[in-house]
Specification:
The chain is of the alpha/beta class. The protein has one domain. The protein is built from 6 helices and 9 strands, in the order H-E-H-E-H-E-H-E-E-E-E-E-H-H-E. It has a 5-stranded parallel β-sheet, with helices on both faces.
């Protein structure tokens, strides 16, 4: 989460943030990086949060939230992103930041804080369009597809992070990263 927060800073990304003390604290931090907190979570006020994110999408903003929700299990996709993709009619994607050397917190999500000068590989999955007329069975299938994408990007980023800075994975300049950002929902 920390590497992605830095890479996508000052882009006005709207993110779901809970009403909890931790959520409030994180909301203040991400605001300093140019993010906009949308209050709610999958366990408390999910409708309010999803409506806020949809409103942001309709206004042309990028939105992001953790695919595995506020309580996990870790790296397991929840239904919110696919439902939002269907209602907004915009493509969604999953991403993961592989970190070479990090302090790993003893939390449900094993949050990593990159150590100084550590390599980080931020990998995005392919865009996935969820049709507005998708049935509930379709949503299950799209959630499974998003899960498979998340699994692939996690495996790829974690197994290739040591190659960052080589000819295989040259360091991307920040200007081109911001210019090439075309997806609407990141998870």
């Amino acid at each position: 989460m920390i590497p992605a927060t830095y890479v996508c800073r000052d882009m006005g990304v709207h993110v779901m943030s809970s009403f909890s003390y931790d959520g409030e604290y994180m909301g203040r931090i991400i605001k300093k990086f140019g993010y906009v907190a949308v209050k709610g979570s999958s366990s408390r006020n999910p409708v309010r949060a999803l409506l806020g994110l949809r409103r942001a999408l309709e206004q042309g903003w990028t939105v992001a939230f953790t695919l595995d929700g506020p309580r996990g299990p870790r790296h397991k996709v929840k239904p919110g992103p696919v439902g939002l993709g269907r209602s907004a009619g915009l493509p969604l994607s999953a991403f993961h930041a592989g970190v070479e050397k990090a302090w790993v917190l003893n939390s449900w999500d094993r949050m990593m804080i990159p150590k100084p000068f550590s390599r980080v590989l931020l990998r995005f999955g392919k865009l996935m369009q969820v049709p507005k007329d998708a049935t509930e069975e379709d949503l299950v299938r799209y959630s499974e597809e998003l899960q498979a994408t998340l699994d692939r990007v996690c495996k790829f980023a974690d197994s290739n992070v040591s190659k960052v800075g080589t000819t295989d994975f040259p360091v991307m300049q920040e200007q081109s990263m911001k210019r090439n950002s075309k997806f609407q929902i990141a998870g």
